[in-house]
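Hi P.,

Sorry for the delay on this. The queue was packed all week, but I finally got your sequence through. Input first:
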Amino acid sequence: MSIKQNVESVNERIKKAAESAGKNYEDIKLLVATKYADVEQIKELIGSGIKVIGENRVQEADNKFQQLPDVEKHMIGHLQSNKAKLAVKIFDVIQTIDSLKIAKEVNKRAFEINKIMPVFIEVNVSGEESKYGINAEEVSDFYNKLVKLTNLKVDGLMTIAPLAEAEESRICFKKLKQINNELGLKYLSMGMSNDFEVAIEEGSNLLRLGRIFFR
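Then the structure:
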């Protein structure tokens, strides 16, 4: 199938999942993870109606973005302090704030260019040592520290579920939703190519899908 056909197919699945869960399809944002896509493929995605893309590495993203039409751009990979200056410049949202150190560096770099930087808190709901993110029980305290940083705007929570069957991801999605019930943030970024329908059922309104578009 072509990229355009894959976009149409995925949108239809999102719509069906939303209707089944009693959600509004228009309220669910679709982000395409373009880590493995080249510039021409990304242009094809944008031409097929994709309005949000996500990249994992700052330097690679910068090289691609210079060749792309205007589109909403999210940082969805782990961010190192020495890449924060460029990340703040080129991304519209940073989804992977997972320490006070990186939050302060992003805030500093945003202040330097007079930008209010929308960010998400990355939460390690599964507790896997191989994953980045704040521990679930620390999110509330971490959020209270972030809101004191004047050039950050905390817009959401993000998590990566274990690479397992979709139903096994449900537990993680439920837990992130419960955390956000206390914080009331705008976005729950959860759900990838293998589990996005379950994520929608559990309250996700920002999906991060990648490989499903390139097969």
